[in-house]
Every structure is written in C-alpha cells, then in structure tokens.
Amino acid sequence: MRTGELERPRATSDVERLEQAMTALGVRFRRPQLLRQALTHLSYVYERSRSVQAAITESNERLEFLGDAVLELLVSEFLYRRFPQASEGELTAYRAALVRSTTLARWAQRLSLPEFLYLGRGEQPRPGQSVRERILAGAFEAVLAAIYLDRGLRVARSFLQKLLEEEAEGLIALGQNENYKGRLQELTQERLHVTPVYRTIAVTGPAHQRTFTAEVLIGDRAYGVGHGPSKRAAEQEAARRALERLRAEGIG
Question: Catalytic residues, which ones?
C-alpha cells in the first residue's frame, strides 16, 4: 500500500469483491459476471474442476485473447491522433512500448487488480512476493475485453485513455531505451543454448522515411517480426515479440 492511501476493506464475498473491483476500475458493469471471469485465472478454475475444457472456457483466457485485440486497436488510435507527424515505423515502436507485458502489469498493479484476482494455490504469491507479471498483464487485457463487451468501445476507450494520457510519454521513452535484444540473447543462450539471428526482410517507403521489417530466428524458427524507422528499431521490436512468445511457451 502506498503512503497516504486508505486501506481498502477486505472483501468477504464475491459480490463485495466485484463491487470493490468496479470502484477501483471506475467502471460499473451491467453484467458483473463478465468482470468475475476476467479476474479468474486458469489455475483457479482448473484446481476446482479438474477439467481442461472447463478451465479454458470459465477462466479469463478467452477474454485475454479479445482484450489483446481491443488494446492494440485503442492504443493505435491514441497514437495516431497524438502524434500526427510520426511515421508508421515510429508509431509501431511507440505502440510496442505501451502494450508490453511490463506496462500492462504495472497498470494492473495501479488499479489494484492483484487484490481481486482469483488464483489457484500454485499461483498465489508468498509473503513479500507479487503476482507474476504475465498473470497481471493477461488480467488487464481480460478486464479491458470485459469492459468492451459489457459497456462498448466508447467506455473501453475512456477507461484506457486515462492511463495512456498520464503515462504515454514516459512509457514510450522507456520502451525505446529498453534493450530487448540483450534480454533475448541472455535468455536464449541460458535456456536454449543458441544465439538469436536477425535479418532484414523488407524496407519500404521513400528514402527520407524508410520503414524496416526484421525477423529474429532462434535456431531454425522465426520467433518474432518487427517494424521500425531504423534497422535497430525493427530488430528491437522483433526481439520484444520473440520474448513474449517464449514466455507464452513457458520459457523465461
């Protein structure tokens, strides 16, 4: 709890828990069961049902899938309007900084989502630890999808706009400076004993406004494709996407 904050009373029922979650989000749900699903991790359902199919359909995995698309649309729209002079490659790099898992997890923390998540015993953090970044990022996407389904695109846009307006400039700068290539090389050498290889697969646009497309190979498999205003920026974006794919595969 941050200094100066009032401690939120701990919920004693699902109804109270969802009421507190809606207050933290600043969104009233017409169908609170959608929010309940968005806050339910796969581990929680599976421990109770022991059915893989039930876990998939009752957890927030499907909402996370939809939320990823809604997030990309709304962030792209925001950047398109905010930076009218930016090239396609620059906008792509900015978006990458805003939709990365670290950013989404931080937003989830800011909205107090960890307090409301339904987690299986194996995913509940120990004292002094926090919920895994990937779980928080997925929950944020799922909540965004739930808002979209329950209240529509306008309310989803308003919900996300507040976060983007307050933090966009700093997040974009942070994302541009982050060394995804270095992180990917460390991970693949340590866990897979290979070094990633980058290659430029396309260069488009006029000479004064090039957009580069690069892909990264890990072994003989392409793990990520990125676009950017320079070869380096495109490779950084490819590395970021490769890191997300490796995390999804349980590596990293």
Answer: 68, 141
